[in-house]
User: What shape does this take?
Amino acid sequence: MINTTSQRAPGAVKAPGTERHFDRKGLVQMTLLGLLLILPVVAYFLGHLYYVNLASRITIIAMAAVGLNLAIGYGGMVSFGHAAYFGLGGYVAGISAYHAFDFTPFMSWPISVPGSDNLLVIWLAAALLCALLALVIGAISLRTTGVYFIMITLAFAQMIYYFANSWPTYGGEDGLPIYIRNTLPLLDTGNALTYFLICFIGLILAMALTSRLMKSRFGAALTMARLNDVRLATSGISPYPIRLVAFVISAAITGLAGALYADLNGFVSPTVLSWHFSGELMVIVILGGVGRLYGPLAGAVLFVMMETLLGGITQYWQLFLGLVLLGVVLFAQHGVMGLLAGRERNE
Amino acid sequence: MSVTLLIEQLLNGVQLGTMLFLMASGLTLVFGVMGLINLAHGSFYMVGAYATAAVTASTGSFLTGLAAGMAAAAVAGALVELIVIRRLYHRPHLDQVLATFALILIFSEGTRWIFGSSPLRLSPPSWLTGFVTLPGNTRYPIYRLVLIGVGIVIAIALYVLISRTRLGMRIRAGESDREMIGALGVNISKLYTVVFALGAGLAGLAGALVGALQSVQVGMGEPVLILAFVVIVIGGIGSIKGALLGALLVGVVDTLGRVYLPIFFRAFMPPSEASGVGAALAAMLIYILMAIILAFKPKGLFSAHD
Amino acid sequence: MKNITRFGLGLLLSSSVMAVQADDVKIGMITTLSGGGSHLGVDVRDGFMLAIEQSGRDDIEVLIQDDANRPDLARSLANEFMQRDDVDIMTGIIWSNLAMAVVPAVTRQGTFYLSPNAGPSDLAGRMCHENYFNVAYQNDNLHGAMGAYMRKEGFERPIIMAPNYPAGTDALAGFKHLYEGEVVDELYTQMGQTDYAAEIAQIRASDADSLFFFLPGGMGISFMKQWESSGVDIPIFGAAFSFDEILIKAVGSAAIGARNTSLWAYDLDNETNHQFVDSFREAYSRTPTLYAAQGFDTANLILSALDSVHPDDQDAFREALRAADFDSVRGEFRFGPNHHPIQDIYVREVVEGEDGQPTNRLIGVAVEDIQDVYYEQCQM
Assistant: This one.
């Protein structure tokens, strides 16, 4: 599926005479995805579980960034509050498992809602709740533009962060443990490789959805709304609902990633709701290359690997992380994917 | 709740507001003139506090330390502008976000490398400690009154600078039309460096002044950075007047919310629960305020770019 | 500072270069070495490594990683230690919320975890585990002891204050549990709050005769500096977390006169402690904090158990740890049934030291043989 989708740049009309360029880009993308799939499988059969879990972490962070990229890169909506959706998704997994474990209902009035440890239920709930939250936040925030939009999305995320920190029922700042990984019928989700493959499929689906969306009429309208919303409005389409829908889908993808992350760690805490995490997600998207289908993946691989490798070398690792990020932004104009695969035609 | 307590809390709110204004004025100038989102503004706050603590400790003079802190932050600002920021003006906002996020990491860990992990000591000089007795027999710390005074002086000085001087004229021109002032033969790159250093210096001054009341430690600039962003967005980006009013509004709302929300909830809740709920809501209050203001005035209260 | 880093790194490198033999012991330390509040992690690490070095054993490999005070990173590092490096024992975590993220997973997978600082109530009670040992304190200990001490000293109208997060509400609950009387008011501040003018005004407006607060790290520094010039003159009390040697030097004169509870004091009179304080000062040119003492004790507990058995023999090693047969810098030290310490809690007062800097001085015992209240919920 990815083979066909990756051949075309999202939201752009195929231009003639760029075949060589395509080959290089396709090669880079296939290598990236291939390595991400093959290395953990090899590691698993060599008995190195740690690397399998590291790959799961990269995959999930990449998926969250894919969601954010839909808002930032394709929609031009610079959200500084996507941690809210990532965290909400995580808390859906945590809270649901907590009640399933305790055999207490999540809600008994007006309707009875029991907890569940079925991942399908959790994912559905996470995606729907994040979509709902994003609908409310987006409806208000999209009235603003530019820096105001950045800051109002941050404000909403901060509200949720402080709420989660001080609300004692689900652990407050201590967070909420998930004792046993939530389950799927027929599969052993506790197995590291199985769980990695679930995450990997999630990432592929998120990327495929983005790609399909951007090739549709909806995607064309979204691109137009980003580039020139006056022109879009004169063609009889109001940019506001287009943006809102994209924002909601973006939040749902990030929320799903949050649910996967909580189950990977067996734990969810307000840290993933903090503005730092929103900033990191943004950094990953920009690092990889804004508005590129494979950008979030490249960014996540680079960021998590740097975090892991530098951390083992020196206690001042964040200094070097900062220097590398600065180097990328100064010398690689269009992120890592821009550096490796060349420029997009619409840049 | 007595009236004197209310007045004291209002003073506390105003004092918080004046310090936020020092941070926010630089941030809003930099955005207004250069269109730059600077996440690293909190780092200059930290640089100011650390330099002041170090110089005060070695010379024994708080005023020398203060001058050194402000100068260090301004120099750091100028260097950052010349080495990094200069290359980013023509780049998308997102690249600026990434670069200044990286600068936060570099400044924080660099400071820790130089000064170590322990918080530094910085106290107000002995002639500024102690308190005055206000009407109603309330004691109020002298140092906080001085902070309010400094905030007012800086606000007036900025007003004069921007409305009465040649530099101020260029800044105003830069805010209204960036291409235009280049065409008029103004040396833009010099102007940008000066404005950036000025903003950094003000942040450094705020860090040094507040550092004497708080903990001088790595990461001290981040909470105040977020608050400063809230301030300039409420006030309207690019507007010094908006920054001043936004800062006072945020300072007063935040302070009063922390005091009166728990008391309010106590009317219909057991005390310990009320304190918890009140404190939680107080933490969210300024963000709620900001969301409401932006929902009705999407460009803040006094936007310079209308 | 740089010397210590080099020492730590040198140790790390030399030990990883060393050929690892089958009976070598691997210890994984995840602690907070960067960001705000990192001096706690640095002291735990330095105290721990000092004990390892003094033991002269070259069959122990200590791997050290920085969690940057982030639960998800700490969790990932724990995976790295367990799944890649196959460590026998883990230790080092400073903060309760990180401990909650890491410890259950570690102990469940059959690795020993010894806490050198955090002691959240769940890990002492319903989530306790046979492979989990807390060598520091249960979170309530110091606050409860201060409650008992203030009652004993005849304070009748305390006002109490803490940040609005689990450790804060637990601290106030722990205080009230042993204070056994009415408090004038409970104030909840925000996490990471830096300005306390509003709270100080409320304290002044109340008719409290004393203040107990739990504001760890930078929050405590900010509060005490602002308290000093407020003109409110009731005595202040707290737990050692706001009064370690590094923090009170940053606070300055404002800390003088404050009393605080601690499980250890550098002027505690026993031979092990004298040697520890002297050698720590010599190695790192500073006075150790209680975190360093806890790190030192943690390492010595591990060493005492390693003297008799290798951790591969889990049951024997667990018994050896449980016996706690080592010389603690705190004097008497033993474990309760939930592997949390039963220990004396001391009271210290901040005084002006010989160099004019504030320092802690031991003034008495708050509670003898304090034990947490959660052990009854613990089934292991």
In short: The first strand of chain C starts at residue 25 and ends at 31. Chain C has two domains: 2-138+268-342, 140-264+345-376. Chain C touches chain B through 48 residues (CB under 8 Å). Chain C is about 40% helix and 20% strand.
